[in-house]
Design a protein that fits this description.
About 45% of the residues lie in helices and about 10% in strands. It has helices at about 15-30, 40-50, 70-75, 105-110, 120-135, 140-150, 165-175, 180-200, and strands spanning about 5, 35, 55-60, 65, 80-85, 155-160. It is globular and about 50 Å long.
């Protein structure tokens, strides 16, 4: 039995409850195992979790984006957390550089990614200044990004994307290292805060 995700982020809460009622029936019939609503608004998430049998919540989170307060909220609500885009759609693997061109059928093209200007270009610069810290202990950059998530909160289950067997092996290899040390986590936060401050000046 699978986990069904309601992927209508902006669905009004009342309608989400209606969908949950149907999904509750499917759970009781043994047709599905659990379900969730992809919604990262704390108020809606809290109301939905307390009024339904939802078991998990998918959230967007990685070292460079996402709401870092949500994992603790989900733990308080007794919800498991599935992390979307833990590797930033490939940006946190170190394989993308300024000037990289994506194929027309690539989702990042549809999202209008630009590695020379704008958000993704800024993220590449942020990544470069924390690269060494993420690679602590012999980790690859991708493994460090996953290790950062595990160190953020024990309840997080990242679902990194992949296109090759080598990428699957690299992602799975992150488990042998475990989470990043807390001292490294503090250093990363300090470096990123300093970078943000410099950008504002």
């Amino acid at each position: 039995m699978g986990n069904y995700h309601l992927h209508l982020f902006d669905l009004p809460l009342e309608q989400a409850f209606e969908v949950a009622g149907t999904l509750d029936g499917l759970v009781q019939e043994g047709l599905i195992g659990m379900y969730s609503w992809c919604n990262e608004q704390p108020e809606s998430l809290t109301a939905f979790a307390r009024a339904t049998n939802a078991s998990v919540v998918p959230i967007l989170l990685n070292i460079l984006e996402g709401n870092r307060e949500l994992p603790a909220l989900c733990a308080a609500l007794n919800l498991g957390v599935i992390v979307r885009r833990p590797l930033g759609m490939g940006l946190l693997t170190g394989k993308l550089q300024a000037g990289h061109q994506f194929p027309d059928n690539d989702m990042r093209t549809r999202f209008k990614w630009n590695l020379e200007t704008g958000k993704q270009a800024m993220q590449l610069k942020q990544l470069e200044i924390i690269r060494e810290l993420l690679c602590t202990g012999g980790r690859s950059l991708a493994q460090g990004a996953l290790a950062w998530l595990w160190a953020t909160h024990h309840s997080l289950v990242p679902i990194p994307g992949f296109k090759t067997v080598a990428q699957v092996e690299e992602n799975a290899g992150a488990m042998q290292f475990g989470e990043l040390p807390q001292t490294t986590m503090l250093e990363i936060d300090q470096v990123l805060k300093a970078k943000s401050q410099m950008d504002l000046e």
